[in-house]
Amino acid sequence: MGLTREWYNLNTVGLPQKVINTIQSARASSTRSLYDCKWRVFEEWCLQEGHISFQCPVGVILSFLQDLIDKHRAFSTIKVYLAAIAACHVGFEGKTASQHPLVCRFMKGARRLLPVSRSLVPLWDLAVVLNGLKMTPFEPLEGADMKHLSLKTVLLLALASARRVSDIHALSVHPSCTQFAPGQTRVLLKPNPAFTPKVVGSCTPIDIEAFPPQLVSSGEQQQDLLCPVRALHTYMDRSKELRLNDQLFVSWAKPHKGKPVTKQRLSHWIVEAIALAYTSQNLQAPLGLRAHSTRGLATSWALFKGVSIQDICAAASWSSPLTFVRFYRLDVSAPSVARAVLGTLLSRDSTC
Fold first, then answer.
1. 205 phi-psi bin (left φ>0, alpha ψ -120 to 50, beta other)
2. Contacts within 8 Å (CB) and 24+ apart, 178-184
């Protein structure tokens, strides 16, 4: 389960194996793996300095953290290292290493010396990307290959739900998890019951309403090309024949065709969809694209269009508006050059 050193510490106290497993399950598997990696770095550093990693004095821990500061590591990175050390170190007088008074003061000082900075403007233009999703190779949807159908579906779902990639990765096509309303007017998506979210209890069902049909020049009604319900229904219908698992998103490429994709691969799909939406319009895709950026961009546009902060937090599974304000809110009020040139201003709240 990772964090072997923590297991030894708990075992020394005399706890049964099952109890230790339950205690270590308090952290997500990804967190345990991350802590285990950081702890091994600290162990190697202590070995070179001649210290016992899990019993070293507080001064040794502070020296290691200071070494990270001298190497210009981000404050968030230093916090992860300290959390890993606190999980595996025996602690001081019944408290974890991170609770030691000197460590607390050190981290406050590190926070002042290493201010957290983030971009306040979107890295990519939502209007440009949405316009690209309405063009070749994403449309017509019925004639698109499985690759571009998958890319479009996962990006629209990420934007419509504002959820983490891990939440989208946990979605299932099982009838108990994916339920379309009659006429595909809306869809309710639930994660696999075995899924444990990063924040326990935060993964609520995703309820998406279909966009109403549009009137074309001939007077006929046409399905909205950006409707996530339409894209999802088409994707599930097209992927039935190759699907080998109930996970919503499966691979289209050999030799993994039909098998569930990983969270990392799903992130690559989102980034590739954004980049392809740019290049399909002969535009250069921005550098440094990240799948996680969809959360901040989608929720910031929702706030700009008048959605309440409470509804935004409920949709994105944030327990407090402070999370959105501090880490995700972007300034989307000013039109970009690309938006002005292409004239793709969004005209409907549901699209944003």
1. beta
2. 178/236, 178/248, 180/229, 180/233, 184/210, 184/229, 184/230, 184/233
- pLDDT tens string 279-332: 999 999 999 999 999 999 999 999 999 999 999 988 888 888 988 988 888 888
- Quick one: residue 308, left, alpha or beta (phi over 0 = left, psi -120 to 50 = alpha)? beta
The closest of 75, 84, 86 to 108, measured between CA atoms, is 75
Instruction: Look at strands 221-222 and 186-189 and give their pairing.
Output: unpaired
CB-based contact 134:222 (threshold 8 Å): no
Q: How far apart are CA 178 and CA 165, in angstroms?
A: 17
- List, in order, residues 6 or more apart from 43 with CB less than 8 Å away: 5, 53
Q: How far is CA 255 from CA 187, 246, 277, in A?
A: 31, 18, 27
How is residue 226 written in tokens? 């950006």
Cβ-proximal residues to 238 (8 Å cutoff; 6+ apart), any chain: 146, 149
pLDDT tens digits for range 21-63: 888 888 878 888 899 999 999 999 999 999 999 999 999 999 9
Distances 214 to 7, 167, 168, 219, 342 between C-alpha atoms, Å: 60, 31, 28, 9, 21
